[in-house]
Amino acid sequence: MNQIKPNSLAARDIAYHLHGYTNAVRQEQEGSLILTEGKGIYVHDENGKAYIEGMAGLWCASLGFGEERLVDAAIRQMRKLPYYHTFSQKTSSVTVELAEKLIGIAPVPMSKVYFASSGSEANDTVVKMVWYYNNALGRTKKKKIISRQKGYHGVTVASASLTGLPNNHRDFDLPIANILHTDCPHYYRYGQEGESEAQFAQRMADSLEKLILAEGPDTIAAFIAEPVMGAGGVIVPPAGYFDLIQPILRKYDILFIADEVICGFGRTGNMFGSQTFKMKPDIVTVAKALSSAYLPISAVMINEKVYSVLRDNSGKIGVFGHGYTYSGNPVCAAVALETLKIYEERNIVDQVRRIAPTFQREMRRFADHPLVGEVRGVGLIGAIELVKNKQTRESFAPQQGIAAQTSKFCQELGLITRGMADGMAFCPPLIITEAEIEEMFRRFSKGLDATWAWVR
Ligand code: PLP
């Protein structure tokens, strides 16, 4: 990628395209990888080189690349009704079908589905719903939403505020008011000397309660959590964490929001991460694997407790004054509906359960590598955390860019993976086979050894 030919796609990309989550100076110097095709778990670049997509894109292309049934579903719906909206008592038939389907498979009893186009929009919608809900109940002080350090909930103004990562706030004048962040429940990183996992989980719950009491429970509206934190580093909660958190939320009448944008639809070995971790949320957001990422669609599911208040208030003031042009877009809905059908027919949850032991075993083989501090994961998601010192758990200095360098070596070897802080993340398409898992980690092993040679 160092030799950028004039007028090449890479050169035109530099000339015209501002990328998200990219160092633009480095992009101008090095160019970007330009993908042109995909099939199964592989994507191909403009020169025909194949890469295993170890991240399913951005944790999303669950059925891999080239699922013809999704293509056909989109074309059929494009021909029939390419667009309709959901404002002022209108909708398209396929959007109704999708809403019904989602309520049918929700991890806990849910009442209604609200559609949007991205995870960020879904979580932004939730923030507004929570405020609207409490205003409708006359609890005008109960507005603060607690998220977690290293939580990831998106990049729009409210959802980026919920996100607990410094780069999403820095120089953007975020977070906005009324968003608080409690501790990140990462036992390996934040567990104290001699503290058991159970004691750590208890300390996390105590700290949340302390924050609620310090702020005043009548000011705290909601708590949002990913079942497994994704972009924060694939952090699996300590055993018992959500069992301890939930009674606290109930005690202070605080709504519980599960951000299932990554965990939803089989990733953790159940249809939803909420089932894996025994979470009983009032509100659930989903996106990504809802359509296997073939078209942009997200959804907010709300229970009857929340819906009944929104309904009554919209009746009282005349409208629920929120809605996107593309909410419930019929082509996106048709692709999502077909995706859910495929999950059902191929029994995707069983498929993940069958394949996950191989994935976890192959990943955990790296635990002994001198660069590896922790290997963690559940189902078909995991991370390998790179450390400077295995004994003391000391991290590399951020400017060393250890994860970026490892990703680079892996990319040369035909594997796409990404560093989340210093954790190399793996979240392959759910259709990956055992042989492909072995090949993915064979490539990673070579990339990690190259990194080891590079740091020494
Ligand atoms: N929530 C979680 C857990 C995510 O991982 C993401 C994206 O990675 C989002 C929300 C934001 O979704 P989007 O990028 O579609 O706005």
Automatic annotation (TrEMBL):
<dbReference type="GO" id="GO:0004015">
    <property type="term" value="F:adenosylmethionine-8-amino-7-oxononanoate transaminase activity"/>
</dbReference>
<dbReference type="GO" id="GO:0009448">
    <property type="term" value="P:gamma-aminobutyric acid metabolic process"/>
</dbReference>
<dbReference type="Pfam" id="PF00202">
    <property type="entry name" value="Aminotran_3"/>
</dbReference>
<dbReference type="InterPro" id="IPR015421">
    <property type="entry name" value="PyrdxlP-dep_Trfase_major"/>
</dbReference>
<protein>
    <submittedName>
        <fullName>Aspartate aminotransferase family protein</fullName>
    </submittedName>
</protein>
<dbReference type="GO" id="GO:0030170">
    <property type="term" value="F:pyridoxal phosphate binding"/>
</dbReference>
<dbReference type="InterPro" id="IPR015424">
    <property type="entry name" value="PyrdxlP-dep_Trfase"/>
</dbReference>
<dbReference type="InterPro" id="IPR015422">
    <property type="entry name" value="PyrdxlP-dep_Trfase_small"/>
</dbReference>
<dbReference type="InterPro" id="IPR049704">
    <property type="entry name" value="Aminotrans_3_PPA_site"/>
</dbReference>
<keyword id="KW-0808">Transferase</keyword>
<dbReference type="InterPro" id="IPR005814">
    <property type="entry name" value="Aminotrans_3"/>
</dbReference>
<keyword id="KW-0663">Pyridoxal phosphate</keyword>
<keyword id="KW-0032">Aminotransferase</keyword>
<comment type="similarity">
    <text>Belongs to the class-III pyridoxal-phosphate-dependent aminotransferase family.</text>
</comment>
<dbReference type="GO" id="GO:0009102">
    <property type="term" value="P:biotin biosynthetic process"/>
</dbReference>
